[in-house]
Amino acid sequence: MLKKTDLILVAGATGGVGQLVIAKLLSKNLCVRALSRSRNKARQMFGEAVEIAVGDLRYQETLATATKNVTHIICCSGTTAFPSQRWDFLNWFVAKNTPRAVDGSGVKNLVAAAPENLKRFVLISSCGVLRKERFPFKVLNAFGILDAKLEAEAAIKASQLPYTIIRPGRLIDGPYTSYDLNSLLRAKTEGKKAVVIGTGDTLNGESSRIDVAQVCVECLNYQVTVGKAFELINYGKRPAVTDWEQLWAQIG
Q1: 197 lies in a domain?
Q2: Which residue range(s) make up the domain with 104?
Q3: 20 to 30 A from 133, CA-CA: which of 6, 54, 122, 169?
């Protein structure tokens, strides 16, 4: 169970899911440290509600201060699957923010910097990491996004840290931070679709950023989620109350 004395580091804090994770942690009066490349951006977003650590997952030497004394890490970092403004191009041929640099090496750097006594490392990965050769995931992986995420999963599993890996489907619902078709269409579940959890990378569908963030936080209160990787989508009529114990029983 999460305690008031815990200190949770959120990587990718200013991204769509990261913002929501921090909001949910703060609603529980928990201590949060936000990892961001830009102190000003993080401070404008969160004010004085969180501690801010400036660091860059691509450079392990910048992470020591960020991970010092943290009890939990929730990694929401990531770049786009296809070339975009977020790839931070130096020129037409070199990009600094590719999936390999951020979703692969970046997560591995964060794993290496994690305290040995960490209580949990939560990683947001993706549906399709075990189905990279099948449609539509073969298209999604054209620039290596699923390769990078699977490398990150492997690094966490090999680290001996207690972990939980969450594999959402196509992310929908705001806040919107990327420039893609989903952002333009503003696809929404409007809170009407149920949370569905599965294992073995067999689910297909969309995942609300709101529910992904909720799962990142809720899983920390359940021991059954330690050492597990599971998929998360939204499908079917949503019950009045989400029964987390019943959901976790499906991965036990």
Answers
A1: yes
A2: 7-249
A3: 122
